[in-house]
Amino acid sequence: MKQQLDVKKQNQWMAWMFSRMTMFFALGVFAAGTYVAKYYESPQQKTFNHSHHSSLIKHTTKLKSSLQAELHLTSPAPEEKGDEFSLLAEVSSQSLMQDVNVKWVLPEGVELVRGSKTQTIAALTGGEVEQIAVTLKQLSDQNEQIHLKLYGQEGQGLASSQVLQFNSFKQAEIDQKNANLRTIASEQMKKDIAIKALQKGQASKVRSKISR
């Protein structure tokens, strides 16, 4: 009889232990599932997933053209209708360029006085500068946009092109605004570098104190 009671108590103890283990196991699974769900919902993980998927998307960027050009005003700028002014284009190439087509695109408010609207440069070698000059006349009393288009062939049939713009009445104003923007950008860059250096220095001091 006593042996039967001992066996019954042992079975009850084992059943109790089994229920406890089952409960702890269920709690562990629930906690792990909650942690994983929160991990994948966190901003850091979202950012990681976004960057991971974004890396699979192909991006294209515009390559820098080997064909280079600068446009210069070589006379007083026009101030009113009837004024004449001269432009000088300096065309160059970083590599051998053949059959460079040069075209001045003039609006109705500007006419050609001297020079040619179109010209072909047979070949440009690296470092060589070709100068092309035109004299124009302002026919309107408003700002006119003049464009210079260039197109050439590099080695292996690769094409290279450039488009420049000159504003008859507002070019000086535009150049000044661009210069101001470049100055502001340069000053902001210097501030950013100084702030990063300061933050890096402070972080180094903190690490030094911790290591002592």
Which properties best describe this structure?
single chain; 212 residues; alpha+beta; Immunoglobulin-like; 2 domains; 3 helices; elongated
Q: What Rg, in angstroms, do the CA atoms define?
A: 37 Å
Overall domain count: 2
User: Helicity level, as a percent range?
Assistant: 40-55%
Based on Cα principal axes, name the global outline: elongated
Mean pLDDT: 76
Q: Quickly count the helices.
A: 3
- Strand portion: 25-35%
Q: Output the strand order for the largest sheet.
A: 1-2-6-4
Distance between the termini: 72 Å
CATH class categorisation of the largest domain: Mainly Beta
CATH superfamily of the largest domain: Immunoglobulins
- The count of DSSP E runs of length 2 or more, i.e. the number of strands, is 8
